[in-house]
Amino acid sequence: MLELGIKILNAQGQVKAEQYGQDEVNLFYKEEYQEGDQIVFTTSKKDVYLNLQVDDALGMAFTYVTNDEIIYQIPFGVKRLSYAPKVFTGNRHLLSARTAMKEEIGNYRNLALNVMDQHGDTGCYPHATANVETRGESVFAARNAIDGIRENHSHGEWPYQSWGINRQEDAEIKLDFGRMIQADKLVLYTRADFPHDNWWVKVTVTFSDGTSEIWKLEKSDRAHVLLLESKKISWLMLGELVKADDPSPFPALTQLEVYGREV
Which branch of life, at top level (predicted)? Predict the structure, then answer.
C-alpha cells in the first residue's frame, strides 16, 4: 500500500489543512486560497502512477510521480489567466490523490495529457518545457499544450491559451514522460486565429531513441495526425518549425497529444 497525503500550506510554510490515507485520500478545504498558498502531495514511494486532483474544477490528472513530494503552486493574478475562471476560486475545494489501478495504467490513451503541469522540475509527469514562451506570460506557456483544451480559434485568456514562440526562429518544445512509454500516434492542434495567426507548414519531431520525423502541416483548425511505427521513448521534441509564407508572424501551438501505452 501507498501512504498518501495532501497538505495546504500558506506562504510561510504553515499547514492550513491536511489529510492522509492508504492508496487514496481526499481533502475538502473550506476556505478561500490566499496568494502564496501551495498544495503538497506526499507519497511513501517514488516512481508510481497516481491520479491527482488539485482542484475539482480542473479535474483529475493521471501522472507518473518520481518524487516523494509534489509541490503545486496555486496561481494568482496574471498566472491564473490560462485557467478557467472557476478554478481555485471560492471556499469549497475538493482535492484528492489515488493510486492508479492496473487497468488504468494499461489503457491506450493520450500519454501527453497533464492538467496540473507547471513550471519547474516538479517530479510529476508528463511535463512540457520550451526554450521560449511569449513574454513569459502564462497564456503562452508550454504547459498549455498538454492541458487537454483543443479550442484554437482565438488567443489569450482561457480557453484560448497556447504555446507562443515570441517570433523566435529556433523555438522548441519538449515533452518529458519521466519513464519509457510506447507511442504510435501524434496529434497536433495548431492555433487557428486567422488572419491574426500564421501556421507551420513543416515541423521536425525528434525522439529520445535518436530518430526523427519530418511532419508536413497545412492551414487548418482541425487535428493534424502523424502515425508512427510504434516506438519506445522517454521524451520527444518539436523543433525546426517552418512557418507559412503569410504576413502574420504569429504561429502557435494549442495542443500536443501522444497516443500509446505504458511499456
Answer: Bacteria
